[in-house]
Design a protein that fits this description.
Elements (H helix, E strand, L loop, with lengths): L7 H16 L13 H25 L30 H20 L7 H23 L21 H45 L5
Helix pairs in contact: 1-2, 1-4, 2-4, 2-5, 3-4, 3-5
Length: 212
């Protein structure tokens, strides 16, 4: 049982359902059924936990857990808050496109340093899949015109020339990403709690006897 009262089996079942949703595209490569906001929220919760685990593993695996080298207070501009602006979840699309590209850059560098099948590569691939999954769900929730042929996502950060600097840059991006997702999850949870309170208040009000 998790500390928030949700059994692990329930979370696993929800997550499995979300993976199936990503993997069954409809026309145009989008899911057959658009996701609900509740599904998006469950996915974000899972991604926030995954982001923290990936950062902790990367920091230790790359021997960077000294003097808080990775834990910068100056994240890339595209990973800064506030997470939810006036457009709500719609504004996440560009951030997730940039994060998917950043993960590809980090993975490309780590392939030069690790044998195939290394744990760091497996974890990076898993996180990249989740980011692509959130993008797919956002496109299902907020359909947008198909990109023009030859369109490429915004380029990722310029790779430094030194191996250590490449490791450190990747570590700092993963740290900023983990904080971004934690903040996003907290905002979605707070929004969900407010909606439930308002719904209960409205329900109680509708049950009050009318005065004659």
């Amino acid at each position: 049982m998790r500390c928030d009262g949700r059994p692990l089996g329930v979370l696993a079942a929800v997550t499995k359902g979300l993976f199936i949703l990503w993997a069954v595209p409809g026309q145009g490569g989008r899911p057959l059924q658009p996701p609900t906001l509740q599904q998006i929220q469950a996915l974000v919760r899972h991604m926030a936990e995954d982001a923290q685990e990936l950062f902790a593993f990367y920091e230790e695996d790359q021997h960077l857990a000294i003097n808080n080298l990775c834990r910068t207070n100056r994240p890339p501009e595209w990973l800064r808050g506030p997470v939810l602006g006036p457009g709500g979840l719609r504004g996440l699309r560009e951030t997730m496109v940039r994060m998917a590209q950043a993960l590809q850059d980090i993975t490309r560098h780590q392939r030069d340093l690790n044998p195939p099948g290394a744990e760091i590569l497996r974890r990076l691939a898993s996180t990249h899949l989740k980011v692509r999954g959130l993008l797919s769900n956002l496109e299902g929730l907020y359909p947008a015109p198909s990109p023009r042929p030859g369109h490429r996502p915004p380029p990722g950060p310029t790779a430094p020339t030194k191996v250590f600097r490449q490791k450190l840059e990747g570590c700092r991006i993963l740290w900023s990403y983990s904080r971004f997702m934690a903040k996003l999850n907290a905002q979605l949870e707070a929004r969900s709690h407010r909606a439930r309170r308002e719904k209960r208040r409205s329900h109680r009000g509708s049950r009050l006897p009318k005065r004659s």
